[in-house]
């Protein structure tokens, strides 16, 4: 399992979670929180890399 902290503008955070789903299994995602003295928000995600599916016989 990998614990990630993502920092971005609110609409970008959801886009990045969707991009992570391409190669990772999303185990948990926290609620976005506003960073102090910043226009950015942060959230935490627990992810697990997906196993490769293109195995050769």
Give the helices and strands, then pairings.
Layout: E1 2-8, H1 10-20, E2 24-29, E3 33-34, E4 41-49
Antiparallel strand pairs: 1-4, 2-4, 3-4
Q: What report would you give on this structure?
A:
This protein has one domain (2-49). It is built from one helix and four strands. The chain has one helix at residues 10-20; strands at residues 2-8, 24-29, 33-34, 41-49. Strands 1, 2, 3 and 4 form a four-stranded antiparallel beta sheet that branches. The protein is elongated, with a radius of gyration of 14 Å. The termini are far apart.
Report the major sheet: 4 strands, antiparallel
**Poorly predicted regions:** none
State mean pLDDT (0 to 100 scale). 92
Strand percentage lies at: 35-45%
Elements, N to C (H/E): EHEEE
Query: Count of DSSP helices?
Result: 1
Cα-based radius of gyration, to the nearest Å: 14 Å
Brief summary:
The protein is α+β, with helices and mostly antiparallel strands. Helix content is 19%, strand content 42%.
Question: Which characteristics define this entry?
Answer:
1 helix; alpha+beta; 57 residues
């Amino acid at each position: 399992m990998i614990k990630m902290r993502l920092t971005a503008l609110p609409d970008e955070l959801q886009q990045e979670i969707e991009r992570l789903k391409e190669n990772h299994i999303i185990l948990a995602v926290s609620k976005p929180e506003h960073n102090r003295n910043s226009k950015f928000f942060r959230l935490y995600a627990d992810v697990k890399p997906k196993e490769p599916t293109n195995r050769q016989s």
